[in-house]
Model the fold of this input.
Amino acid sequence: MEVSVGDALVRWQELIQRAEAGEEIILTRQGHAVVRMLPVQPSAVFDPKRRADFLRTLSRKASAKAAPGAPAAQADQFLYGNDGLPR
Done:
């Protein structure tokens, strides 16, 4: 269902109920889609254990792909001379 942003302001409660029931609501501005309202799926609800596992896995993968180089604390040294001014 497509609804203009102006109409959505008036019909907000109805649109939320329809989205909760599973309907996709597209909000448009001057005929162009700008927002999509979808119901939250149960699997998308915050789960602290899944989030922690995901972040651990992501960190491991990122560390494995990281190119060797200067530590972040020294990363700016090549930008500035001994006088503290940009090179």
Remarks:
- The two ends are 57 Å apart (CA to CA).
- The helical segments are 5-10, 12-20, 48-65.
